[in-house]
Specification:
CATH superfamily of one domain: FAD/NAD(P)-binding domain
Strand content: 25-35%
Helix content: 25-40%
Shape: globular
Structural class: alpha+beta
Distance between the termini: 7 Å
């Protein structure tokens, strides 16, 4: 489908990276976005980390595209003058019971080609003098970057190659026929040779709107952040992560030195009351009913109800949040946290309550739908864009 016209829905980093790759290959590209700016949701509210590919099942799309993306995202940022720092990180075990999981992370990292090595507590203190650990995993390829800056650059490059970005254009219909696909928005109609759905938090709805029957539903989880005060920030040199609970699909609260020098703490993971629910006060009845009607949510809740209660308590109590951080850096004082932003993770869930733990891309006639692209999607965005462009070109 060379030299074809393609409409990409969604101006987050995955949508923009896809449109950029398609434009590089000579396609005529239009990006439509319901918001009035780029990267307004998942991309603009994440932790800014370039992930290494450490956590993911060897051979999965996350492991392959994540490891490749750690290289390509760094190269892209450096080539275009976007702030980036490959500072490395420590994953720290604070108890003996965490050592087997830490060893498994090391095994996965090696299998995925990630430059990582086990270090002793004494060696860990050379990187992070204030950390509490009995053993740690040092990951050299993890970094931080300005993802909003990446999106601005991608947008400029798309337009330089003749592409168009239409903001404030909410999608209302998608219909394919033998000759073309028609995309309807509140501001107009587009006819194209192909359509790509990169709408993140609304990707399953867009897929259904386009006639698909996806076997997953997007369930929103809010991640809340704090920022360390300038005094407390001196206790952290780079990135400090806990050993994740292998039974729980999130990484746990961690400490991240951002590209501007501040240190962010978080995120936790609580069920959001709206797909764009950035606070407890953001409630969308349609979104709530959509989630509640999905049997997988109740099955997940039965399995992780204790963990869920703990996450809610941590959300509502700065003291509990700080206690989690003190497991990593005990010297954090009572007044070391300042509230910061929140993000919402678009997590695809199956009917049986299992969370889709890999990128999920489905194909239909003249259509490609990205139905699951949580972390490390920002890291892997340029590689995901290449994968989707390959789908369009076949």
């Amino acid at each position: 489908m060379s030299k074809s016209s393609v409409v990409v829905a969604g101006a987050g980093i995955v949508g923009l990276a896809t449109a950029h790759e398609l434009a590089l290959r000579g396609h005529r590209v239009t990006v439509i976005e319901k918001e009035h700016g780029l990267a307004e949701h998942q991309t603009g509210n994440n932790s800014g980390v370039i992930h290494s590919g450490l956590y993911y099942k060897p051979g999965s799309l996350k492991s392959v595209l994540g490891a490749a993306g750690a290289i390509s995202m760094r190269r892209f940022a450096e080539e275009h003058g976007i702030p980036v720092d490959i500072c490395g990180k420590l994953v720290v075990a604070t108890t003996e019971s965490q050592l087997p999981a830490l060893a498994e992370l090391h095994r996965r990292g090696q299998a995925n080609g990630v430059p990582c090595r086990m270090v002793t507590a004494e060696e860990a203190l050379e990187y992070e003098p204030n950390v509490s650990t009995i053993a740690a995993l040092r990951v050299e390829s993890t970094g931080i970057v300005d993802y909003r800056g990446v999106c601005r650059t991608l947008g400029n490059l798309i337009e330089e190659r003749g592409g168009e970005i239409v903001l404030g254009s909410k999608l209302t219909g998608v219909k394919s026929n033998a000759d073309a696909v028609t995309i309807t928005t509140k501001t107009g109609e587009f006819s194209a040779d192909a359509f790509v759905n990169c709408t993140g938090l609304h990707s399953d709805r867009v897929a259904r709107l386009a006639g698909l029957k996806p076997q997953v539903r997007i369930i929103p989880f809010r991640g809340e952040y704090y920022e360390l005060t300038p005094e407390a920030a001196t206790l952290v040199n780079g990135l400090i992560y806990p050993v994740p609970d292998p039974e729980f699909p999130f990484l746990g609260v961690h400490l991240t030195r951002m590209i501007n020098g501040s240190v962010h703490a978080g995120p936790n993971a609580v069920f959001a009351l709206a797909r764009e629910g950035y606070t407890w006060g953001d409630i969308n009845v349609r979104d709530l009913l959509d989630s509640a009607a999905w049997p997988g949510l109740w099955k997940l809740g039965r399995k992780f109800w204790r963990t869920g209660i703990d996450e809610v308590r941590r959300s509502l109590s700065r003291k509990r949040f700080l206690a989690s951080l003190r497991e990593l850096v005990p010297a954090l004082s009572d007044d070391s946290l300042v509230p910061s932003h929140s993000g919402v993770r678009a997590q695809a869930m199956r009917r049986d309550g299992s969370l889709v733990d890999d990128f999920l891309i489905e194909r239909a006639h003249r259509q490609v739908h990205v139905l699951n692209a949580p972390s490390p999607a920002a890291t892997a965005a340029l590689e995901i864009g290449k994968r989707i462009a390959d789908e369009i070109d076949t």
